Amino acid sequence: MPADQQELSTAEAKWAEWHRKREETLASQHGWLTLTSFQWLPSVPEQLEGLPGLWRSDGTTAALTTDGAEHFSIANPSAESAQVTGQHVSGTITAQLSNDESLMWLRNGELLVELAMRSNRYAIRIRDPRASTLTDFDGVPTFDYSPDWVVPAQFVPHDEPRTEPVKSARHDVTIPVTAVGDVIFEYDGGTHRLAASAAADGGLTLNFHDQTNGGTTAAWRFVETDPPAEDDSVTIDFNRAINYPFSFTEFGACPAPMRVNSLELAVEAGEKAPR
User: Fold this and answer.
1) Judging by beta carbons within 10 Å of its beta carbon (0-12, 13-18, 19+), is residue 187 exposed, middle or buried?
2) pLDDT in tens, 156-196
3) How many distinct structural domains can be found in the chain?
4) How far apart are CA 258 and CA 175, in angstroms?
5) Is residue 91 part of a domain?
6) Model's pTM, two decimal places?
7) Which residues span the domain enclosing 232?
8) Do 111 and 71 fall within a single domain?
9) CA 12/CA 4 separation, integer angstroms
């Protein structure tokens, strides 16, 4: 096999393994495919759909009051102010988050109860491994791997990070997104620029619109890069562009791209819209 064909075969095999692991993560027991609700906490104690107990928020603290017979247990040991009998919570348990934080807070049978703060309000999301979005999941369709979509780029860091409020997949949630710089690349005879956020591993997150959105792909996608090199060069592998949770479930509150992140390109690479 010629060297260039062997190199392509190796790169495609690595991408296929990456995609397999991506689908495996999506299909995990309490992953994104198991979301079955998004409910704002009321200001006075009330029941929530699908959950026992009485739930409330005073704006700074979220609280659940239970008589102990409803079989709640702590999912995260960092949850404070709990009265616990064996594995069960009895009385009132509280938790506090900062805006845009989440906590896998409690378990109720097979259900995992996630506490989230979005737009300075507390919400509960239920994760149920019996959700049809998980049980009917048969993979994420993708474009064929193409080396043409592995693109060299240059990272231009900002002197100071810039934060901009953006819309989300929910009409009632706005999310602040911080750009640490721009990524500039050449493609199809044009120069393109994307604002980049910092990823947890030191790389960059590029959240973008492109001309395939609403057709073969979801309303927007994102791709992550490795950390920039010493000369701030970076590689964008659009074959690894993936869908946000909102494209699989109506209960995802995912940030839309910054206003500048609309590519005048049809990025026919990465994940397509879910079936």
Assistant:
1) middle
2) 999 999 999 999 999 999 999 999 999 999 999 999 999 99
3) 2
4) 11
5) yes
6) 0.90
7) 139-247
8) yes
9) 12
